[in-house]
Amino acid sequence: MTTAADFGAVAPFEIRAAAEQRxxxxxxxxxxxxxxxxRFLAMTRLDATAIRRSEDSYVDELFGGxxxxxxxxxxxxxPRAYLDVNREPWELDPRMFHEPVPSFANIxxxxxxxxxxxxxxxxxxxxxxxxxxxxxxEALGRIEGVYKPYHDTLKRLxxxxxxxxxxxxxxxxxxxxxxxxxxxxxIRPDFIVGDRFGASASASFxxxxxxxxxxxxxxxxHNKPYAGGFITEHYGRPARSLHALxxxxxxxxxMNERTFQKSxxxxxxxxxxSRFSADLMSLPDHVFGxxxxxxx
Length: 296
Hints:
Largest sheet: 7 strands, mixed
Helix content: 25-40%
Radius of gyration: 19 Å
Structural class: alpha/beta
Number of strands: 11
Order of helices and strands: HEEHHHEHEEHEEHEHEEEH
């Protein structure tokens, strides 16, 4: 059995889209995958519940209303514990593998140090995924077979959107534990909006996003403690009319974190996010810093 066989029955990821893209938005849900290959589960030291601790459960469904509004949604089926595409392609912890990692691998990032590299070492509150070291080929197979195709697809969606509309907006969709608190006040945010401290999206757009969510009655934090990961940083180029924003949703709003069951608030939150998405898509072009020159 190989990495390729892990997704023989279920595609590792999928594009959900209407017949025609009508808006310059692309939604992305890279951590909500809920298909755990049997081969992977056999490798881990965790049971089928504990392995889900890092999963952004149901986020793809919460933002599913964007598809009917004319925006494509790229959704992972592979789980974050298996592979994290919100990392550089080669953020690898050499202590996880029998063989030396490639010389070009980033082994010193803070994410690797925290056990959360491209091939994660940990889930949840510091639970080790594997009982022993892995063959390096396992990491290479996941990166070549899933990570690179995923990013090729996301890059294509954004390029096609930019070409068609003159600009593109990536909404990177995530969730966070209900235990997250912000600052000395200890406020529990419902949402955290991340724009890499102003580097990945126009300030006017970010202000509108925060205002829309706040007006709906939600508590919103900005960049703390989550400012956006590799995807937001890599694809956000507002000077080139490419805007990327990370949105984190408090899981306590819509699910039981212990049982992974949807809570009674799920449908209401999904409806709110559909209205929020519709409001985003109706924003005037100037919110995004104007359109690019024809030569671009």
